Every structure is written in structure tokens, then in C-alpha cells.
Amino acid sequence: MKRSRYIAQKVGWALLTILFVITLNFFLFRVLPGDPARAGVRDPRLTREAVEAIRVRFGLDKPVINCFQSLNPMETGDCFINPLDTQFFIYVGNLLQGELGISYHTNRPVADMLMEMLWNTLLLIGLGQILAIVLGMSLGVLAAWKARTAVDHGALLFSLTAWSLPTFWLGIILLFIGSSYWGLPIGGRLTPGTVYNTSIERWLDIGNHLILPTLTYTIVFLGEYMLIMRSTLLDVLSEDYILTAKAKGISTFQILKDHALRNAMLPMVTIIALNLGFTVTGAIQIETVFSWPGLGGAIFTAVNRRDYPMLQGAFLLIAISVIFANLAADLFYSYLDPRVEDS
Amino acid sequence: MSPSPPPIRSFWRTFRRNRMGMVGAVMLILAVLIAVFAPALAPYNPYQPTRVTIDDIYAPPSPAHPFGTDDAGKDVLSSFIYGARVSLIVGFFASFISVVIGGVIGISAGFYGGKLENGLMRFTDIMLVIPDFPLIVLLVALTKPSLLNIIVVIGLLGWTSSARLVRSQTLSVKQRKFVLRARAIGAGNFHIIRRHIFPLVLPLIVVNTVLVISLAVLNESALSFLGLSDPTKISWGQMLNFAFTRGAMSAGAWWALVAPGLGIVWLVLGCTLLGQGLEQVLNPRLETHHLSVGSKMVARMMGMKEKPSEVKAVSGD
Amino acid sequence: MSSIVEVTHLRKLFPVKKGGLFDRQEKFVHAIDDVSFTVERGEVLAVVGESGCGKSTLALTLMGLERPTSGVIQINGQNIATLKGKEIQVVRRHVQMIFQDPYESLNPIMTIADIVAEPLKVHGLVKNKQERQERVIRALEDAGLKPALNFMHRLPQELSGGQRQRVVIAGALVLEPELLIADEPVSMLDVSIRAEILNLLLELRQMRGISIVMITHDLGTVGYVADRIAVMYLGRLVEIGPALQVLQQPHHPYTRALLSVVPVPNPRQRRERVILQGETPNPINLPPGCRFHPRCPVAQPRCQETDPMLQPVAAAHEAACLLLSSG
Amino acid sequence: MSVTDLSTDFLLESAPPAHALVNVSFTLREGEVLGLVGESGCGKTTLMLSLMRLLPANGRITSGTVNFMGQDLLDLGENAMADMRWKHIAMIFQGAMNALNPVQRVGDQIAEAIVQHNYIQEKGVVDGRVAELLDLVGIGPERRRQYPHQYSGGMRQRAMIAMALACNPQIIIADEPTTALDVMVQAQILELLDTLRQRLGLSILFVTHDLGVVAEMCDTVLVMYGGVTVEYASVDTIYNDPQHPYTRELLRAFPDLSRPTEKLASIPGHPPRLNALPPGCRFAPRCPAVFDRCHTEQPALHQVKLGHWASCHLVERM
Amino acid sequence: MKRHYLILCALLLLLLAACGGSQPTTPADSGDTGSSSQTVTTPAAEAAGPVIVRVGWGGSPDTLNPGTAVLAEAYTIFELVYDSMYQLQPDGSYTLELAESVDVSADGTVYTYTLRDGITFHDGERLTASDVAFSYNLYASQEDFPFLPIYTSYFDSVEAPDDKTVVLTLTEAIPNIESQLIYLYVLPEHIWADVPDAAEFENTAMIGSGPFKMKEYRQNEFVSLDAVKDHYLKGPQIDGAVFQTFDNPDALVQALKTGQVDMITEMPNTAVAALRNDANVQVVSGPPLSPSVTDIIFNVVTPENCPPDDGICTGHPALQDRNVRLALAHATDKQNIIDVVLLGLGAPGLTLIPDSLGDFYNDQIQDYEFDIALANQILDDAGYVDSNNDGVRETPDGRDLIFRLNWPSDSVDSPRMAELLAGNWGQIGVRTEQQSLDPDTLTSICCPAFDFDIILWGWGSDPDPSFLLSVMTTDEITTGTNETGYSNPEYDELFVQQATTLDDAQRIAIIHRMQEIAHHDIPYIIPYYAQEVQAFRLDRFRGWLTDAGKVALEDPSSLLVIEPVNR
């Protein structure tokens, strides 16, 4: 009962956040300097008529919102315009149909392009996150358990340093080491031109290409998870119920497993969720360094080519993914922490 | 009886013993010194054009250029020293903006509560979920990549964590009885915030600022990497950007990459260590537990209240 | 001598978060429900009860820190329930509060002098540093911190618990109040030093004629300090009367039970204990009739229907129980 | 259980070790309730954790024996000791909210101890035992599926007691089990403990600072101050014939409802910090009957009469 | 225990994966096996596997639709997969491709092409004259194709009287028909006729008639092509080609070094020295097959030429004075810029018409010498003196010679060039305020707004100079193509003349004259003509065209002739 209300509330907030992101996304591109139509037209050989044609094609000739022809509040226009015939509603309407506009750069629907890349990014982020979480937490548990010993200090120093590394810098160094000494592929997702006899071969190829990006990703994010795990676990381990468990004659391993970890997981889940937004930063850099065909690389390309619909779409997709991931984490949290039910 | 030391001095006494924090502070101070005295320290002025030849480009380290030269034949050491300035300016000012916004939002939300808090924190939650970096990229790409824009954009988007932290700290300070006492003696909101809330939230804000600096520095370097920095300003990120786009690795000029990269690591690590150290001193998380060493237990068993100050008193005596 | 405090039909409700999405009915915590009493000048009134009975809310309401939902609180003849900002400040100067936890109620980064001087600054009562200094010293020494100069520049955490509580008291004294509200002033202190704080309060009453409302759950000490005792249960006064009478001849079954379970530090005095079963019910869903009836050892059917009023049982001694009227 | 000359030190960073416990000896007989009394920081908790060998890692037991069931607990291997805990010596902690794992069902936490020590595997049997235990402490067995936060303070303490009884231990160490509870709930818990003791023949080591509770619950009392035994005697002797000035002062400072008008006394000063102990008698700085020797020489525990021990130079002289 | 297990597991996983990666060919032995696959191919597949040349590049086609494509990468693929009427050869000449012969009418307006026999599309359908006519008419009629209509602007009609004959009628005789037709790729009518909106067609199947056919295309990942061994002209010697995208220029070079690709189409010039030391690698450099030019744009628009609608025209007045521009030209050390920015891999530039345009390039022009003293003298003489001794000269009416200097933020080299220019010009008392701008903002301040002083930018061109020449005509000021605002009636006149002069030599003479005018008037300083730098491995393929005068190893002319080393 109460959990259902908690869930409903979280879902509600997620939807509201998405709405906010959509609105922000729309206005960002219109408030900031630069004509969105002009932005797509880089070739000075295009005629004024052609520019106007593009404006019409992208709906940019319509008023921004009902009364405003432009975002300049001085320039109010006719208020009897059909509100559904304004840029904002056209935009939202298109969104609802899964249309994110046409890329200025490739002339393809942004949604299609993003979908192709989304899975690649999810693969990279997913694998990297899982490894970083598992390794980071293991290291954190080890450090907390051996608090104030050489093991702890070593792990701490390693994690802090790993956290401080600029992702792209680590990536480029690993790229050179990995390709020169370990014969690992330099970039891409597949070895182009290869004929795969089975899908296992194909996946092995993908896996081989994933090693370096994942390694970079893992190192960069492992540090933070380790630090958090260590400190929450230290907190949890100094709680009285740990002493109770110890007094019950329960072995250290079982205490860690049954009592400490589950309680320490609570802040971890929250932080992992909040961290998801941050992981995108890493993904952009890693995908660019390793030419991984994902959303991050797409953002890099789009930035370079000033492909605004693409940027807009990628940002929206990433934001929505992160919002949903957060929602999932919240729901997972409610499952982990029985106190949620009565909050 | 001799007058006891003021809080700042007793803080320093404890902090001095915190190895992590001290190392971080030294690292950070060193970086600041390098930045401040750049003109005196740098063998050349990287902003001053000099005549170079092909042989000067990516020249390996030599007595004339201890860190070698970069893709424009400039002395890497000098750029490195001057680069500290921009990296630090971005770090400090962006985090200053973030922390001021976060502090104001956090304190007002935490202190006034009610609808204001609800609104502010919901907004914070929304901003917290939105991935920062793509938005930073977007905004910098949409505006023009000048140093000021970068600082403002990084600063404007970095406040969420500060706001949450400050709010929760404000809430916990507000719960403490001395705030109720201040109310009981008839103090107004402003007085309470100024005299009781702010001074006690301040240490946390300082810790947070230090950590936000490291994030801002990392963000600046990532922006540079994406080609979204001001190319006329030499920062470590900018140096890396030139090294990447102009093939330092392929040319075998590792020195052009290593110095600025390590500079960033140095600065970020310094901030992180200092932040962690400060946090340990100001809010001694117990580095110990029932399965291990225990100063909290010891403190409790030795009759000390479980208050940070008490624990400090034990180790400080 | 007129009363310094007159509370009549005081009521304080806290709204609780609405239930479900379709549960429109708002619920309330009945923290204080129709409470009336007076405090005479120079008197020590102890308000006793278990946690959740509303005694802390009573303290905050008396201080003007919580607005009563209804009822009248007259302090020095002025109803603070209706006063506005500035006026309340003036009244507040005469009412000061002492808190339970001396570790918590002092700002750890302010010196003792600053803490004690703070009320003076807030109210803008002194013209110059010198006068402030003098008043701070006087307050500290009155609170037993002698010589005051030894303490003024120290920080709270450098003092022991007892000394801190004295600082809190000094901070209250500096405004020369007429009424002190002491919320569990000694419960966080070690047994060995409780008496000195209680004795200090009594001394102040003697020296300055200050009235004291002492909120406490510790029945052991009330007899020692209080002139009168008020017993609260679930937001209600169930018994009020002279301290000795209440302690030795309690009339309300709740008071009787409460007194019977207080441990006595004498193994030779084993008494019959009345141990009430269950726990104090939730103050949101109050039982009908007498609030105490579900746990009352002598409850009768009519207790479920009629809500008893306070009625005199002896001189200046009242209790709220239906059984009393029938004999 | 008999404890002799138990001493515990804490190793401190940049300071000499603190002697938190010095030569404490006592005997806990079957069915006896031994009260351990003292102000905060007098070494009560250290003693308790030393007995269970649950000290934090910088705590060191430096001497003494703990004889129990014909063995010295201090000589047992870690596994044997782990087996000893709860099966034979169980504990009840202060503040049961913190002592119960917030994310585990109460029933499961009780069952954990049973499974750990009795190796009962069948779920039904364990379940039955949990229900039985909860029933024993007056909690409806259906509430075993609930989490600690759904319990009230008193119920949590009851659940703690049920947990302590899980393996039918001979000894229960109760560390301030009623502190922070309301007086009525305290009475309920004390009554429950008393009933259980009589029914199950438990020995209880009752740690508290509340002299009233001690008077009502205990058979013998051990008064501690600054890590040393101050006085050790039967409860009647302690209250009616205290020998040590500290005991006397403490009793005078404790309010007695039966004598409401009697003037309360206080002991000026505060208990010593364990890393800054006075050289002589640890109580000397606060003692009303102090004389020169007290500042230089630590008094030994002296038997005043049979079963009554006190450590004071005054007692020795007699 | 479990914890250790977890860590161990993860480490094992990584190790296994790493081992899996290092198992296959190392760079040293990859040449011997001739294996195309780096990692996964089983030994059996390796022996019998197809011989595929792996090309690394920094981009990816923006689209496979020839009508809407912009990027050079797309045109590379078009060249391989499609055929057109003419083929541009690396030496700059044109050969007939689809047609075996052409007959031009006496007045030069009717071209009758006879197609070769046996041309088929990759899906097996025959390529006939009607496909050609359909394609040309499509390009001419599609308004949403941004560039191609330019090449069809002289078309009057295209007809296919029979399967083998295409009759192209022009509105007037033009000199450069070949260069107009090379980008008009012939598309299969049986596919494109059914496409509802040609501008939105993604064309991923990409059926063409060229020597390679599309196998797999993943945008921003790779393009994989199969060889058409029985192509009607000359089938490739190899079995296929893949183009792999590397976002990072260093990664591109590293991929070549480690043998993960056989050829790279671009690289940072800084890597050249290191690659030249690699025995397995050969670096080639020279003028690019696709001409391009880097320019320093001066805002010289006069008030009367300021575009009435869009013009803001805030240029520094001093730049209107040729003396100032001349001084700047004399104060520009082009060789130093080439050394630092290009590491020597470029030639000093003269005008917008680069050396890669072959005969159209006028190499007889004497460039302004780098001479600071002379430059100072010129400014002194023209009345620009530093009267207030702040190191910056002023115009006679007292305005400082401080110029805004902008460049596109996506340019790697411009910031370095700007630094050097600032140094050079600083010596003659000219200061710059530097700012990089994103290309859109730059476009918006550039032209036709003329809200700038100096911009560093560049142009790409087709093999005919018409377009580059048009950039300096008065007519293009309002359209924004003329980015300097330069206007010279004599030049405009010559531009019209060259467009209709059919005789090659005569046309070249006019164009040379136009360059002289432009060079004399200095609306631009052209710092350099950059060379194309490419590199390939020697251990797997041989026969790359390295001595053709221009460099484009990814061009069909190279990919058709290379063959495996060990065959």
C-alpha cells in the first residue's frame, strides 16, 4: 500500500523532471544566440530562399509560443494564433511521436541515429559500471575491513588517484599501451570486414574491442565507489547492531554479508543512481578516444559540426535515460530499505 | 588559567595531524604558488610570440626546455606553469559560483523549510538528475567558448550537490538545541542564520568548495578535450587539446601530454585529499568499527561524549 | 501576589500529513488538549509525564516558540497567544528557557562570553562593551561560574557537563527574567552533579524570586525542587497539586501507577508496583471518554464514555478522574 | 562465572595506553543478578566487552582470568569463543533501535542466533522457536515478520531480550537495558527480566547507572569508578552500610521518592579521563574524606567483612 | 572469502579478455600471413579469407545519398561505388568512364555520349542511357539537393534516344563540362524512380555500378565494400575495402603503426617524422586531389557595397587601404607559418586559386617578400604612425590599428596560425584581438554581415576554378559568398569572360590575369597551400599510386591497382 504510494510519487517526479528537461531543451536552443535555421546552413552558397525553406521545413517560421514571435518579450505577436501551431507544441508533438528532428549533418532522423548508438553506449556504460561497482565495492569492503592498515591506505591512494585522472587522458594512455603492447584494437566496435561464422565470434570481437574502453571506464569510476563503500561501511560497521551480531557469535564474513553490506548498500544505491549523470561525462570522453560508436561520440561529433538537432536529441535521450535509471534505483532502494514503507 | 586557543588554532592543531589533508593542502598551495608566481618561475612567456623553426616543434626535453616543447615549438614547462593559472581560475571561480548558489539555496531551504524548501529541493532534485556534462557542453557550444562563459556555465550547473549538502547540514544544525535557545532568547531569523547556522555550515561549505574545485577542473579539461575551450588562454586542458589534435602521441612527444595531464591529476588529487582531510577533521567519520580499531568505542567507554570535539580532545591532549 | 503565568484552555494541535490520495480528512496530533493552570510568582511548578504526553510542547508554547491552536496564555497579564513579533520579544525577555542537553544547547564555536552576551545583543539592551561585560560577569557568577573571567574566553566543549548547564543558566539570567522554563534540566547530567544544578535553580528562586516551570519525567527529583506538581497524560493535565501531596497521596490512578514504579534506591523498601500494560497510545487516534481508560487498572464502563474534568480533591489539589466524584 | 584481576588497556595514538580497567574481580553465581554501577566512563562497558572479548582492536586485555564452565574464556581460541557467545553468554544492549539491524526482520534476527548455534536447519522448527521466544517476552508471534522500525522502544527491548534467550544461555549481560525508556516501560522490562530470571534460572550481569534499578533488581552490586572496583557487596550492604566514600556520595546524590524532602547532595567535579588519571586514588580529587595518602597511593581492594569489599585507605585503616 | 573470489573473477575476466586480444597477429608478423582480420578470424578463414584493404580515416560519410552529401568521406565512397561520365585522374586530367566516346557539336552545346557495353548495376540490372538521363534530370530538378543543381545549371535537356546514347544539350557552350559531370553519379532508375522524396532517401543499400559495391555501412563506425571483380573497366585486385572511422587523430596513426589498418587518409603533420622512421610505413605528401585553400580574410567592403539587407559592415577602416594590407602581407612570414603549423608540408600561397588546381594556378606571380622593415616603411609612408608610443600605430585620424581576428573553433591549426600572425604583425605596430568562434557564429558575423576585421578560414573546391574565382566577384557580395567584400570591375569582367571561353589556353590566360589582379589588390593573404599527407603500410599491399602528382590514396585509381604483396 504505502510502497505503491512511494512508487507513484517517484514515477510522478520522474515524469515531471522529464517535462522540465523537454522544456529546458526547447528553450535553450531558442534563448541562446544564433538562429536555429541559420545554424544548420553552413554553406554560404545557399540562397536566402533555401534558408527560408529550411526554416519552414523545421517549423521555425512559426511563433515560439502562443503570443511570442520570438523569445524577445518585446516582440509579442498575434495572440489568436492556434496554440497548437507554435514551435513549442510542434516540438512536443513531434517528441511524443518519437521524432527528434532531422540531423543537420546527416539529414537523417535524429531518433534513428540515436537508437543505433544508444545500445552501444548502454553496453559500454553498463559493463563499465558493473565492473566499477563490483570492483570498487570489493575494494571498499576490503579497505573498510582493514581500516587504517597498509591495505587500506594503498586502496585509498589508488582510488583517490584514479578518481583524479582526466578520463580522456587515461584513455589515450591506455590506448597507446594497449595497442602497442597487448595488441588490442585501437578503436571501433567491430573489426570491419570480418566475416563472422557464429554470433559468438561476433561477440568475442566486440568484447575484444570493449577491453580498453571498459578498463578506462572502470578505473575512473572504481575509485569513487571504493571511497563511498569504504566510508559507508565504516559507518555501518560502527553501528551497534554489528556489535550485536558479533556478540551472537556470528562470523566476520557472515556479519559483512548479512548485516553490513545490505545496510551499506543503501547509500551506495543512491549514489550510484546520482552518479549516472556523471557517467555520461566519462562516456563522451571514452567513446571519443576509442572511436566507440555511441551517444558520447555522437555528442562530440555533433559539437564539432554544430549539429543542434543531434545535440538536442542526444541530451534529451541521455537525460531521460538517467532519469529512468534514477527511478529504477529509487525503486530498488524501496525494495532494499523496509523503512521506506512507513516513511 | 591560560586562555584557550581560538577555534581556528585548535582546528589547525588537529588538521596538522591529518596526513591526507596536509598532503592535499601542500599540493594545492604549491599549485597556487606556481600560478601566482608564474612570470617569475617560467623560463619563457608562452603568450609572447617567439620565432620557432620546424626543429623546435615537439623537441624532446633538453636543458633549454626541461619539459620539451609543444606543437607550436613553445616551452612546455612555461605553458605548464602559466596553464596552472587558467586551470585554477576556472576551478576557483566556477566552484565559487556553484557554492554560493548551492549555499544560498541550501541554507534557505534548510532553514525556512515549508513550501520554500519543498520548491527549492524539488528543483534541486530535478537539476541533480539532469546530466551535467552534456548540458555544459551544450551551453558552451551554444554560447561562445570564452573563459568567462566556461566558468559561468560550469559554475551554474555545479551547485546541486552543494545545495543538498548544505541543506542537510543546515537541517541538522537547525535541530541542535542552541538554535532553539537562540530563538528562546528572542533572536530573529537573520541573526540565527548569521550567528548560528552559517558559521556551522561554513566548514562543510569549505570542504564542498574544495571538492567542487576538483570537479570544475576536470570538467574544464574535458571541455578542452572536446575542443570547447578558449584557445587563446593556456590551460592544462588546452595544452592537452593541442597535444591530442596535433598528434603529440603519434609524434612520440609524450612530454606534451604528461606534464599537463599530471598537472590536472595533481590539482584534482590535491583538492580531493584536502577535502577528505578537512572532512575528517571537521566531521570525524570514524575510521574504525566493531570489526576493527575503534576510537568511537574507546571514546564512549572512556566517558567521552560522542561528539567530534570530544574525540578531538582525547587525541589532542 | 498575582500569578505570573495563567494558562486557560490551552490547545495545541499539529496537523499530520494527509493519509492517502483519497483520504481528505486531515488528522492532528493532540499535543496539548485543553490545559489550564497557573504559576505563582516565586513558585516552582513541575510538569511531569512520560514522553509524548505533551510536556515539551507545553514548554515551547509557553515560550511563544509555538503558537497555540487555541486558548490563552497570560504572562504578566499579557496574552502571548495574540501578541505579534515585536511585542512578543518584549515579553520573551522576561521568560527564559533552560534546555535538557547542555552539550547541544551551546553553539560550539562561540565563546562562553559571546553565548551569555548574545541575548543582550539580540535585544539591544546594553549601550557599551563595558556594561555588557559587567552583566555577563554577573550572570556567570550568579550561575556559579566563579571567577567568571576564567570561563569567559573558553569554548563550551572545554567545560564539563555541569559547567555547561551553568552557562546555559547564565545565558538565561543575563536578561533578568521573571520566569524560567527548565526542560529536563538535569536528565543528561551524571547523577553525581544533578543536585548542584537543581540547588542552583532553587537558589535563584530564593535570591531573585524567579518562578520556574520545570518539565521533567524524573519523579525522583521533583519532590526535591517543586512546590507544586502537574501530571500530564496524552496532552491533558490529569492531576495538579502541592508537591508533597501529589507524591504522597496521589489521587489519579495514573499518578499512582507512575509513582509506584519509580525505582527506590533502597532494597529494603519493596513496594507493591502498579505496572501499566502496553504503552501510551498514539496521540493521533485518541480513545473516547477518559484517555487513560484503556490502561487504567481501575477503569469502569463509564470511563469509555465520559471525559473527566479536573476537580478538587484537596486544598489546591485537583485531579481528573471519574472515580473521584463517586468517592 | 568468576572473574579475577581483569585488566584492560586501550592503545592510543601518540599517548601512553589508557588503563580502562584495572584488576576487576567478581563472581557471578547461578541465578544471581549482579549489578554493575558507576557514572559514565567508569569502565562498565569496557568490562562487559572484555568478558565477551568484543573489544575494539586497540583494546587489550592485559591480565586476569574469566572462569566459566571450567574454562578460562580468555584462553579460548577465536572460534571456541565465538561459539561461547550467545550460546552461553548473551547480551542485551542499550538503545535497542541501534542494536537491531534496521533492514532485517526481527524474527530473522532472532532466528540467526538460533541457526548459528543450534544448527537447527528445518525452517519450521526455527520459526516455532522464534514464535515461542517472542511469546515469552510478550510480543505477538505474528510480529516477527516486522522490521525494527515498526516496533516501539519497549518492544524493541523485549525483542532484544527474546533474542538473548534464543539459545538458552546461562548468563545474560544486560547493558543499561532500560536507559532512555520511560519509567513505566522500564518497569515493564524490569519485571519481565525478573520473571524470566526466576523461570529460567538465569544469571544476569546488570550494567546500569541507576541506583534505584539496582536496588530493585540485584542481589549483589559492584560499584566502579575510573576503571577500578570501588566497592563490591550484597545489595543490602551497599545501600545500608556503604564503606567507600564514593558509594556513599553516590547514594546521597540519588533522589529517593520515599524521602522526597531530603536534601540531595552532589559530588563536585567530574570523573577522571582515563588517559589523564590522578596518580593516587582515582576518586581522590572529588573525595570529601580525602587525605594525603590518597593523592600518592592507590588503595587496594580490601575485604571489609565476608563478601564485602571496598578499596579505600580509610577502610584499610580500620 | 567471497570477496576475494569476486575480485579474482573480475581480474580473470580482464586477463582472459586481454589474452584473447594479444593472441592474434602482432604488427610484425601480420604482413607475412596477409591476414585481413585482426582478431577473430579462425586459421581456416585466415587462409582462405578475402583480401581486404583496411583504410583508416577521421570521418564518416554524412549520408550515402549523393544528392545531399556534404563531406569528403561521402564522395570517396561515391567514387568507389558509383560511376559518372568522366573520371578525374590524379594528374588532373579527365577520362571517360561510363561512355566509350563523346561527340560534341560544333557550337559546343550538344554532347552525345555513347555508353560502353555490358555495364550493370550491382544488383544485376543493366545500366542504360535512360538511367543516365534519369539521374541528370533528378539532380537538375531536386530543389532540396543543396549543391548538385549548380552543376546542372547549364543543362537544357538530357535525353536517351536509345539504350546506349545520351544526348546532353546545354543552354550555352561552357569550357569545363568534364568538371561539371564528375560529381553527377549515375543512379539506378529502377530504384530511385520509386523514391518519394529523393532528398530524404537514406540510400543505405547503395546500388551503383562502380568497381566496389556496398557490403555494410555503419555510420561513424565503418564502411565495408566488396570488390566488383568483373567490372566493365577494370576490376580491383583485392577482394574488398573497409574504411574505419577513428575519432582521434592519434589513434589513426597508432592504428597504422600497429597494422590494424593498411592506409590512413589523413594524419597530423606532427606524426610524419615519426612515421617516416617506420620501415613498414611509407608517407606520401603532395597537393590534394580535391583542391583546398586556407585564407586570411580582410574585411574590405566599402560602404557603397555594403549589402543593404544583411550588412552591418563594421570593418576597421584601415583595412580598406591597400597600403595597410600590403604592409600586413609583407609582415607575414609564410614560411614560418608553414613550418610551425604544417611542419613544412605546404607551399606558400598566392591567391585563392591553389596549386592543386594544376594549370589554372598562376605560379608566375611574385609574392610579397617577408620584410618587416619594408612593411614598417609602407605604413610610415602611408601615415600610420604610433604617435602615442603605445606600440600600436594609429590611422591618420587617430584610430588604433587593432584588428579583431577570428577563426572557426573546429579548426586545429588556426589558433597556432593566429599566434604567429600576432607575433609577425606586432612587429609593425599592429595588434590583434583574438577570438575563436563556432562556425555558425563566424558565418553570421562574416558574410554578408561584414561584422569583422580579419578571419582565418578556408575553401574547398572542385577541380574547376570557377567557384573559387566567383568568391571575389562583386555579384557575390550580397549572397555572402564573397567574404571580403572585394569589388573590382575589371576582375568581374574577366570572370564573365572565362566562363564562356572554350579554348583552354585562352581561358587559363584569363584566369591567370585574374589571379594577378587579386594578388595585387590583396583582399586576402593566402598563408599556404597545405599538402595532403597520407601513409600506407608496405607489408600487405603494393602498387599505391604515389607519383601521380596529387595525393589521394583512397581514390579508385589507387584502390583499383593495389595488390597483395605476397601474390
Please summarize what this structure is.
With 343 residues, chain A is an all-alpha fold. Helix content of chain A is 71%, strand content 0%. Chain A is built from twelve helices and no strands.
Structure write-up:
The complex is a heteropentamer of chains A (343), B (317), C (327), D (318) and E (567). Chain A has 343 residues and is an all-alpha fold. Chain A has a domain at 110-342: MetI-like (MetI-like fold). In chain A, 71% of the residues lie in helices and 0% in strands. Chain A is built from 12 helices and no strands. With 327 residues, chain C is an alpha/beta fold. Chain C has a single domain, classed as Rossmann fold, CATH 3.40.50. In chain C, the strands form 2 sheets. Chain C has an 8-stranded mixed sheet, sandwiched between helices. In chain C, a hairpin with a 2-residue loop joins β9 and β10. In chain C, α3 packs across α4 (129-142), α3 (112-123) packs parallel to α6 and α4 crosses α6. Chain D has 318 residues and is α/β, with parallel strands linked by helices. Chain D has one domain (2-88, 169-316): 3-Layer(aba) Sandwich (Rossmann fold), CATH 3.40.50.300. Chain D is 34% helix and 24% strand. Chain D has 12 helices and 12 strands. In chain D, β4 (59-68) and β5 form a beta hairpin. Chain D starts with a strand and ends with a helix. Chain E has helices at residues 2-22, 27-33, 43-48, 72-81, 129-141, 148-151, 177-181, 189-192, 249-257, 272-276, 322-330, 334-342, 372-381, 414-426, 439-446, 466-470, 489-500, 504-521, 556-559, and strands at residues 52-57, 86-88, 94-96, 99-104, 110-115, 155-162, 165-170, 212-218, 222-227, 240-245, 263-264, 281-286, 292-298, 346-348, 402-408, 431-437, 454-460, 524-530, 532-537, 541-542, 563-564. The longest helix of chain E is centred in the N-terminal third of the chain and has 21 residues, at 2-22. Chain E is globular and about 80 Å long. Chain E starts with a helix and ends with a strand. Classes of the chains: A mainly alpha (343), B mainly alpha (317), C alpha/beta (327), D alpha/beta (318), E alpha+beta (567). Chains A and E meet through α5, α7, α8, α10 and α11 of A and α1, β9, β10, α9 and α15 of E.
The helix content of chain B is: over 70%
Poorly predicted ranges of chain B (pLDDT <50, ≥5 residues)? 1-6, 292-317
**Count of individual helical segments of chain A:** 12
Largest sheet of chain A: none
By DSSP, the count of extended strands of chain A is 0
**Overall SS class of chain B:** mainly alpha
Question: In CATH's first tier, which class of the domain at 110-342 in chain A applies?
Answer: Mainly Alpha
Topology (elements, then pairings):
The complex is a heteropentamer of chains A (343), B (317), C (327), D (318) and E (567).
Chain A: H1 2-31, H2 36-39, H3 48-57, H4 87-96, H5 110-145, H6 150-164, H7 167-181, H8 199-237, H9 240-247, H10 252-289, H11 295-305, H12 308-336
Helix pairs in contact in A: 1-12, 5-6, 5-8, 5-10, 6-8, 7-8, 7-10, 8-10, 9-10, 10-11, 10-12, 11-12
Chain C: E1 3-16, E2 27-40, E3 44-48, H1 55-62, E4 70-75, E5 78-79, H2 85-92, E6 95-98, H3 112-123, H4 129-142, H5 149-152, H6 161-173, E7 179-183, H7 191-208, E8 211-216, H8 219-225, E9 228-233, E10 236-242, H9 243-248, H10 253-261, E11 311-314, E12 317-319, H11 322-325
Parallel strand pairs in C: 3-8, 3-9, 6-7, 7-8
Antiparallel strand pairs in C: 1-2, 1-4, 4-5, 9-10, 10-12, 11-12
Helix pairs in contact in C: 3-4, 3-6, 4-6
Chain D: E1 2-12, E2 15-27, E3 33-37, H1 44-52, E4 59-68, E5 71-72, H2 78-84, E6 89-92, H3 96-99, H4 106-118, H5 123-136, H6 153-164, E7 171-175, H7 183-200, E8 203-208, H8 211-217, E9 220-225, E10 228-234, H9 235-240, H10 245-253, H11 292-296, E11 302-305, E12 308-310, H12 313-317
Parallel strand pairs in D: 3-8, 3-9, 6-7, 7-8
Antiparallel strand pairs in D: 1-2, 1-4, 4-5, 9-10, 10-12, 11-12
